[in-house]
From TrEMBL:
HAMAP family: Galactokinase (MF_00246). ATP binds at residue 130. The gene is galK_1. Residues 344-410 form the GHMP kinase C-terminal domain. Residues 164-243 form the GHMP kinase N-terminal domain. Substrate binds at residues 96-99, 285. It comes from Poriferisphaera corsica. Mg(2+) binds at residues 191, 223. Keywords: ATP-binding, Carbohydrate metabolism, Cytoplasm, Galactose metabolism, Kinase, Magnesium, Metal-binding, Nucleotide-binding, Transferase. The keyword ATP-binding applies. This is Galactokinase. GO terms for cellular component: cytosol. Belongs to the GHMP kinase family. GalK subfamily.
């Protein structure tokens, strides 16, 4: 078994705070769970990657994380928090880099999330603190909040500023402490989770709500302006509007969302982090976007979503080879995404596998955003087709990060163990992995509901 390590709240803390809520997916008593954790911790140098959080229910994880966060808030700010909000990360099942081409994506919210707790101040200042960093951000509550230090605070300054512009105005300044279990740099939208959690917290502080689409759009704008990443709409949409038990087919032009059922108890999603950092502000993302826009202009369409494969083939001589391959990926990926939504809705999980593998090959050869480590993880997963793997692909913006694997639930733990062991043996890199099912989107939390025993 292997899994991600979450700091600063450790897995053993999660176990000890609300142990009565914890259980294996397959069922066992709590004594067995504690013994299994102790044996692994004592006997394995790789115990930090055990999937302890995958052994907990989603509600138990949230309760344990929020209880710990409230305690830390009281220690740091010398008072108890009064408001709380949550926003999940996401994994994209299929439909990569199609969002900024007005295309289709099929993400789901995951059972890893950003939590924020807050209390009002008696002035107009905002004090932001993260459990992951020592520095604190301090600024005045205004609709023209500047970027500033520490850098991570820009992901929060933007949503606050744009909420104020929309009339979502808290009555005073406030203190915030945040904690995230979404792996940073893994292509699981840790930044969107921060932005959407912040906007949701401002809503609850102001006692006034935005339309969910509007909230997603202002968070996207915040990432563009405050963080400098020209992302598409998918990440903020699914964090804001995820549905438990369903993925969401998102039309990135019309913003129409269609739930796609993924609640079969026999099916799970395994996310495996290559632990090769994923960084989208380095220019590769913007370069791919420019290439796609260039291809659309040559084809005479508003966006590559409107182009057909025949159109692309007819215009091949007008495009340089690289731009042609970029467009080929987008056009075929849109087709795969629509087909994936159809087969999942029909419960035809086996048909999803070839679509996921084809998507990865397209990202590798045509869009050129995979890495040798991601390619290896997908190859290792493909080798386990007879051991319960249905399909696997790179997920996220690329250039590092994670793979997403669709698998049968009863084989999930052996699959994770084999993936991590074989990957570590061949690369020397310690991976991490966890199991998830589709989670609910952003929402306010009642502090006392989750901190009372």
């Amino acid at each position: 078994m292997c899994l991600e390590q979450v700091e600063p709240v450790t897995h053993i803390a999660y176990l000890s705070v609300h142990l009565q809520y914890i259980g294996w997916h397959g069922g066992c008593d709590l004594t067995d769970l504690k013994c299994e954790f102790s044996r692994e911790k004592a006997n394995s140098q790789h115990h930090n990657n055990l999937d302890i959080m995958s052994l907990m229910t989603a509600n138990a994880m949230i309760q344990a994380q929020l209880s710990s966060l409230c305690d830390q808030f009281s220690t740091f700010f010398k008072e108890a928090p009064t408001h709380a909000a949550i926003a999940p990360g996401r994994v994209n099942l299929i439909g990569e880099h199609t969002d900024y081409n007005d295309g289709f994506v099929l993400p789901m919210a995951i059972e890893r999330q950003t939590l924020m707790v807050a209390s009002f101040r008696d002035d107009d200042q905002v004090h932001l603190k993260s459990t992951a960093f020592d520095e604190k951000a301090i600024f005045s509550l205004s609709s023209n909040i500047p970027t500033g230090e520490p850098t991570w605070s820009n992901y929060l300054r933007g949503p606050i500023s744009y909420c104020l512009e929309k009339g979502i105005t808290p009555p005073s300044g406030f203190n915030v402490l945040l904690d995230s279990t979404v792996p940073g740099g893994g292509g699981l939208s840790s930044s969107a989770s921060l932005e959407v959690a912040m906007a949701t917290l401002v809503e609850t502080l102001a006692d006034k709500n935005l339309d969910p689409v509007q909230k997603a759009l202002i968070c996207q704008k915040a990432e563009h302006i405050y963080a400098g990443t020209p992302c598409g709409i998918m990440d903020q949409f699914i964090s804001a509007m995820g549905q438990e038990g369903s993925a969401l087919l998102i039309d990135c032009r019309s913003h129409e969302t269609t739930p796609v059922k993924l609640d079969d108890p026999n099916i799970v999603i395994i996310i495996t982090n290559s632990n090769k950092a994923h960084e989208l502000s380095g220019g590769e993302y913007a370069e791919r976007r420019e290439q796609c826009e260039s291809a659309a202009r040559t084809l005479g369409v508003k966006a590559l979503r409107d182009a057909t494969l025949d159109q692309l083939k007819d215009a091949r001589e007008k495009l340089d080879p690289v731009t042609y391959r970029r467009a080929l990926h987008i056009i075929t990926e849109n087709q795969r995404t629509l087909e994936a939504a159809s087969v999942l809705n029909n419960g035809n999980f086996l048909a999803m596998g070839p679509l996921m593998f084809a998507s990865h090959e397209s990202m590798k050869n045509d869009f050129e955003i995979t890495t040798p480590e991601l390619d290896l993880l997908v190859t290792l997963a493909a080798d386990m087709a007879e051991q319960g793997v249905i399909g696997s692909r790179m997920t996220g913006g690329g250039f590092g990060g994670c793979t997403v694997t669709l698998a049968y639930a009863e084989y999930a733990m052996p699959i994770m163990k084999s993936l991590c062991t074989r990957y570590r043996e061949q690369t020397g890199i310690e991976p991490s992995a966890f199991i998830t099912r589709p989670a609910a989107g952003a929402r306010p939390l009642t502090v006392t509901q989750y901190t009372s025993m």
